[in-house]
Predict the 3D structure of the following.
Amino acid sequence: MSEARIIDGKAVAESVRDEISARSAALLQSSGIRPGLAVVLVGEDPASQVYVRNKDRTAEACGFHSVKHTLAADTPETDVLALVEQLNNDPAIHGILVQLPLPRHIDESKVLRLIKPEKDVDGFHPVNVGLLTAGERSAALVPCTPAGSLVLLKRTLGQDLSGMNAVVIGRSNIVGKPMASLLLQESCTVTIAHSRTRDLPAVVRTADIVVAAVGRPEMVRGDWIKPGATVIDVGINRLPAPELGEGKSRLVGDVAFKEAVQHAGAITPVPGGVGPMTIAMLMVNTLTAARRQLNLPEEAPLF
Ligand SMILES: Nc1nc(=O)c2c([nH]1)NC[C@@H]1CN(c3ccc(C(=O)N[C@@H](CCC(=O)O)C(=O)O)cc3)C=[N+]21
């Protein structure tokens, strides 16, 4: 069998970013307003650092107003809530992202529920979750990683995914559940598999589309993949790599890439797959949020 096509998430993310830059420049020209994005970091989770740096750089490249609030890991919950409230009321801020996970003493869902739904560029507020689940994707802000994964699927398979068997591995609120909602809305036959699923390899073998979002390095093996299937690897796992030198690490996905590439029709790499798309879709959501807050018409959807 021939090797799978490698889906270039970095290149697709760049094209999305170019489109957002152009739309952002047009908005600035016509209304004098820059989309504003605020990121709130509580504590310094090392895994968050790369993400925040990439996000800042991309926001700047899109001509956005971008601010970062870094709070100490022991900041009281009331202070975090007060900051969110301040950002909710700041007209220069159209999108608010509170980096997860939060320290244990902070009630995550309390923080997420306080963010104004129209500023919720992560799409984690119950209002946005509800709209997406109810099939009103176009009225919602859609979580960035699932949205980016769907963009990659459509670039690979075309606009029509109807009737395809999609298996989503992982049931998180951040990826698995919203991904399943999106694929269902595309008329896929959707299975959500998880840690209690019986005979996961057999379930995955039924899939035309596999979305792996479990957070377990290289868990999905090559012989689980139906020949020709499209594989979206959402996992970003940092493993020690002494072969690269002392203290070095490497990133691997949730899919055993070297094996899966022998079976799949197309597959995303890690890094360079879904990660860059997550950031690109955050820019899409921030621009969408800004336009809605300014009562401007919706632009053509990018997926
Ligand atoms: N409220 C919230 N929303 C998030 O979306 C969110 C979050 N919290 N907490 C942390 C995770 C992690 N995350 C990443 C996004 C992009 C890359 C990314 O761009 N990765 C690149 C480079 C990775 C590297 O070189 O280290 C790649 O995969 O090619 C990584 C990680 C978003 N997250």
